[in-house]
Amino acid sequence: MALFGLGKQKKKRAGLFIDRGYFRYLAVVGLPGSIVVADSFAGELPEDATQGGDPFANNGMYLFQVMNEVLHAVGTIDVPVRLSLPTTDSLLRVVNFPGMSLYEAKLAFRYEFENYFPFPIEEGIFDLAEIFYPLQNGTEEPRYLVGAARKTLIENITKAAKANGIEITAIEPAQVALERAVTPITPVSDASVYIYAGKTRSVLIFSWKGNGIFYRTMSIGFTGISFVDESFNEQLSAEFNAFAREVHSSLQFALSQIRGFKPDMFFLFGPGATQDLCEFLKESLSIPEIMVSDPISIHGLDFDSSAGSWDIPIGLALR
What we know:
Layout: E1 13-19, E2 22-29, E3 36-44, H1 47-50, H2 57-60, H3 63-74, E4 81-85, E5 91-95, H4 102-109, H5 113-116, E6 124-134, E7 140-150, H6 151-163, E8 168-173, H7 174-182, E9 191-196, E10 202-208, E11 211-218, H8 234-257, E12 265-269, H9 275-284, E13 290-292, H10 295-298, H11 311-317
Parallel strand pairs: 1-4, 4-8, 9-12, 12-13
Antiparallel strand pairs: 1-2, 2-3, 5-7, 6-7, 9-10, 10-11
Helix pairs in contact: 3-6, 7-11
């Protein structure tokens, strides 16, 4: 599944993930199953680049300086780059246009845009990808996943990249990149639930036969918690409980909306994913099958990943 492609894809490509105070850059070559990391860089962003805030704030007003910092840190970036949009700046919906081709669905959705997204079509940009959607009777039907963002933000991203000599070939919602990163070439089950335990925000993903059909961002993460001590201290126990509540409410909502989706397996991944959290979720949510997953191992990547937070750039680079 791919959204917001901006140009022709080339063999060597890179994923760029920019967040508050840091960035991750990963360049790869090869095809799925034989991906080789050509370059990787984990860097920090100085506070004066974003005034200590979100790099994408105010429709990306800080992105020129941010990309300049990235370029100086990495050195020459001479490969096509895929950039992620924060979960707060990209919205995803599933729509149904029976019998329509992708081209026809794109034309038709222009008249439906404001029924799904909280801003007018004149202020937005969107893209569609075809998916298969499970039904209650055990069958499935083709539908479309729609990703949308504000046009001004996308324009400012492309302007900032061009001014710094960086070729952006895709701008993709981070949620979609996460799903691609954690999904094996051959999915383990038809109906998988992926739980991304992030630093400041987390994501619940329903995947049907290797394609995401539901994404829900949860305003909870694990920044500032030490996992060195494996015992359940008070702070860690409180965080686990809060996380489990968010996952439970998101699961209940998703399952009520997609009645044909019967989860086979649950996978936990991300900066906050530990075996302790995995066991806690299994007990508190009565999940029969859940395991910790690692995109680096799934795709057989070999590079220095000690800095962490590589899930999104991996998903982008694999696009």
